[in-house]
Amino acid sequence: MDNQVFESIFPFKVEDLVSLIIEKKQFSFDEALDYLYRSKLYDALQFEETKLWHLSTEKLFDMLVNEDFTDTLDYPDFI
After folding, report:
1. Residue 79 lies in a domain
2. Predicted TM-score (pTM) of this structure
3. How many independent structural domains does the chain possess?
């Protein structure tokens, strides 16, 4: 995929994910950003080649919560 296309989609993925974190975890905006930015998921999501950006916001949120409990980022089998 063209890197420009990924770079245009990435901010929207992050915005949607932060909104879901705020909704589901009842975090403030700053807490949600911190929660996401400190994660292994965010580290991987930043790179087009991981293909994580293809996943739904809900799936990304589930992965983030799972990472929080296990301290491991588990990729779905279909990635």
Report:
1. no
2. 0.90
3. 1
The answer to whether position 77 is within a domain reads: no
Q: CA–CA separation, 31 vs 37, rounded Å?
A: 10
Domain membership of residue 61 as a residue range:
3-70
In a domain, 46, yes or no: yes
Assess whether pLDDT exceeds 60 at residue 1.
no
The model's pLDDT over 10-68, given as tens digits with 9 standing for 90+, comes to: 999 999 999 999 999 999 999 999 999 999 999 999 999 998 998 999 999 999 999 99
| 79 neighbors 54 (Cβ within 8 angstroms) | yes
Task: Classify residue 6 by burial, with Cβ atoms within 10 Å: 0-12, 13-18, 19+.
Answer: middle
| Rounded-to-10 torsion of CA 38, 43, 46, 52 | -110
Chain Cα centroid distance, residue 59: 9
Query: What six digits make up the tokens of 74?
Result: 């588990």
